[in-house]
């Protein structure tokens, strides 16, 4: 195969910054490798198993934190260099479009997409469970409480709307 990387990218799509995506993946892989190395150096390893309550906390906290970073109005300054405000997409959530090219575009897609962020956040949470489990559980419990509160707020608003 003698295709250049540019030819591969252009054949795939001129609109998708594959090289920048590859760099973002490289950052993720490097971070995971560094966490594994730090675990080995400090004598900390992955647990033999994850208990069900930790899995629930990790899941709900990952959901809530990824939505907070990707959609919340208060975190829009983090996204602003990479996105453009379009409007409101839901209760306390913004609709934004990714702007720029190359790295700016790739990072914009990552930080404005809760599904994309979830992998990174869950990895950070897992690392937290290895290096600082008490603090990580506290953060997980806090973010889970926020998520449950969100769901209750939405249920309450729907109930009030239906009774009118």
Task: Please describe the structure with a list of short key phrases separated by commas or semicolons.
single chain; 164 residues; mainly alpha; 7 helices; 2 strands
What do you see in this structure?
- The chain is mainly α and 164 residues long.
- The protein has one domain.
- Helices cover 71% and strands 9% of the residues.
- The chain has 7 helices and 2 strands.
- The protein has helices at 5-12, 18-42, 52-71, 76-79, 102-111, 114-131, 133-163; strands spanning 83-90, 93-98.
- It has a two-stranded antiparallel sheet.
- Helix 2 (18-42) packs parallel to helix 6 (114-131) and helix 3 (52-71) packs across helix 6 (114-131).
- It is flat.
Q: Oligomeric state of the chains?
A: single chain
Q: Unreliable segments (pLDDT under 50, ≥5 consecutive)?
A: none
H/E topology pattern:
HHHHEEHHH
How many helices in DSSP terms? Answer: 7
Count of separate structural domains: 1
Can you count the beta strands? 2
The profile of the biggest β sheet is: 2 strands, antiparallel
Whole-Å distance between the termini?
66 Å
Helix fraction by DSSP (H/I, runs of at least 4)? over 70%
What proportion strand? Answer: 5-15%
Strand numbers in spatial order across the main sheet: 1-2
Q: What's the alpha carbon Rg, rounded to whole Å?
A: 19 Å
CA-based shape: flat
**Average pLDDT level:** 93
Q: Structural class from helices and strands?
A: mainly alpha
């Amino acid at each position: 195969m003698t295709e250049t990387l540019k030819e591969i990218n252009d054949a795939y799509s001129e609109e998708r910054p594959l090289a920048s995506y590859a760099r973002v993946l490289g950052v993720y892989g490097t971070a995971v490798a560094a966490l594994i190395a730090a675990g080995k150096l400090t004598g900390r390893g992955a647990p033999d198993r994850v208990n069900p309550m930790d899995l629930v906390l990790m899941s709900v906290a990952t959901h809530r934190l990824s939505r907070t970073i990707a959609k919340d109005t208060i975190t829009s300054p983090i996204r602003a260099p990479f996105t453009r405000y379009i409007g409101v997409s839901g209760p306390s959530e913004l609709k934004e479009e990714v702007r720029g090219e190359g790295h700016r575009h790739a990072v914009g897609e990552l930080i404005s997409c809760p599904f994309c962020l979830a992998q990174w956040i869950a990895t950070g949470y897992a690392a937290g469970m290895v290096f600082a489990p008490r603090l990580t559980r506290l953060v997980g419990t806090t973010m889970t409480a926020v998520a449950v509160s969100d769901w209750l707020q939405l249920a309450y608003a729907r109930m009030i709307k239906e009774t009118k």
